[in-house]
């Protein structure tokens, strides 16, 4: 590798600033793994959490855990450890493809799961009496299985042919090393599901606001237990909307910054901003378990039991 080529691969950020980003991402990795493992263990040991809606939350937790177990370590190695150790970025096609694969699967599974949550909440709010008939464990299981198969197959394209290809001075960033057509395919998938999920949750919020009092009073006249259950469903709906809203806030800066182009080399401030938006998008994988704990009483009790190793303790929503 000639000197000019090596010079092009030198990191713009100095070692001290790279080290700060390294520490931040290691901290995120540890917290993401521990909190999402707690969610999955809570779901596993507490039968009361085995609801249809929680199947989507498990799918989200697995997607987030994938980011913590594989996405973050690959980020740490490629973006920080190797530049600090070698004094330059590396151009390893397969390592980079693995990093992009993990990010695609985690983000893709998350956003498609949120589309499922939007459908689930719309039916729960709009058709509460038919909810159990329309949304079953089998149907949701098939839906989740299909989205994971689709996302894994689609993301596996990263490993084919010249989909990932380095040019002089390129680092392992999607817009630099991936085939432009595949980048467009990935962006269209995420953007469409992103918009569908956001729009659907806005519709759900509007429907819930307009119909909450009317439906609750009708259900109370018919069966008070149904009215109580409906109020709980509304709280779950608000929580799911909060999850989607925070997902949008965490990922939107990263999506926007990947669209920015410079004629020459990227300035130092942009490198800082890019690293920051990557960390914010990754931090989304940490947020969801804490939303469950603070917003949903049943999850809060279950996660507390897991934290203190009380796996056989009874959990109720009372």
From TrEMBL:
The keyword Oxidoreductase does not apply. This is Uncharacterized protein. GO terms for biological process: chemical synaptic transmission; G protein-coupled receptor signaling pathway, coupled to cyclic nucleotide second messenger. Keywords: Cell membrane, G-protein coupled receptor, Membrane, Receptor, Transducer, Transmembrane, Transmembrane helix. One of its GO terms (cellular component) is dendrite. Belongs to the G-protein coupled receptor 1 family. InterPro entries: GPCR_Rhodpsn, GPCR_Rhodpsn_7TM. It is a multi-pass membrane protein. It holds the Pfam family 7tm_1. Transmembrane segments: none annotated. It is found in: Cell membrane. The keyword Chaperone does not apply. Its main location: membrane. GO terms for molecular function: G protein-coupled serotonin receptor activity; neurotransmitter receptor activity.
């Amino acid at each position: 590798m000639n000197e000019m080529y090596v010079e092009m691969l030198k990191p713009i950020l100095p070692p001290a600033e790279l080290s700060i980003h390294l520490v931040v991402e290691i901290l995120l990795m540890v917290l993401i793994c521990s909190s999402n493992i707690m969610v999955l263990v809570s779901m596993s040991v507490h039968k009361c959490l085995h609801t249809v809606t929680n199947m989507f939350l498990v799918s989200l937790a697995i997607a987030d855990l994938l980011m913590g177990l594989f996405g973050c370590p690959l980020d740490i190695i490629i973006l920080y450890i190797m530049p600090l150790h070698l004094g330059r970025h590396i151009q390893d096609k397969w390592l980079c493809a693995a990093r992009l694969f993990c990010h695609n699967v985690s983000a893709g599974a998350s956003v498609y799961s949120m589309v499922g949550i939007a459908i689930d909440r719309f039916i729960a709010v709009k058709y509460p009496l038919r909810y159990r008939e329309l949304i079953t464990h089998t149907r949701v299981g098939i839906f989740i299985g299909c989205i994971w198969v689709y996302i894994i197959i689609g993301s596996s394209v990263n490993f084919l042919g010249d989909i990932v290809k380095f040019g002089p001075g390129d680092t392992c960033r999607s817009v630099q090393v991936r085939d432009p057509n595949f980048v467009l395919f990935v962006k269209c998938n995420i953007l469409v599901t992103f918009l569908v999920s956001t729009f659907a949750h806005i519709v759900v919020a509007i429907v819930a606001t307009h119909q909450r009092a009317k439906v609750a009073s009708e259900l109370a006249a018919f069966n008070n237990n149904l009215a109580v259950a409906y109020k709980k469903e509304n709280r779950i709906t608000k929580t799911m909307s909060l999850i989607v809203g925070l997902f949008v806030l965490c990922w939107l800066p990263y999506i926007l910054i990947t669209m920015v182009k410079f004629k020459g080399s990227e300035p130092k401030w942009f490198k800082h901003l890019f690293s920051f938006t990557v960390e914010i998008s990754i931090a989304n994988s940490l947020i969801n378990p804490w939303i469950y704990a603070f917003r949903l009483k049943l999850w809060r009790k279950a996660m507390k039991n897991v934290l203190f190793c009380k796996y056989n303790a009874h959990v109720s929503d009372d």
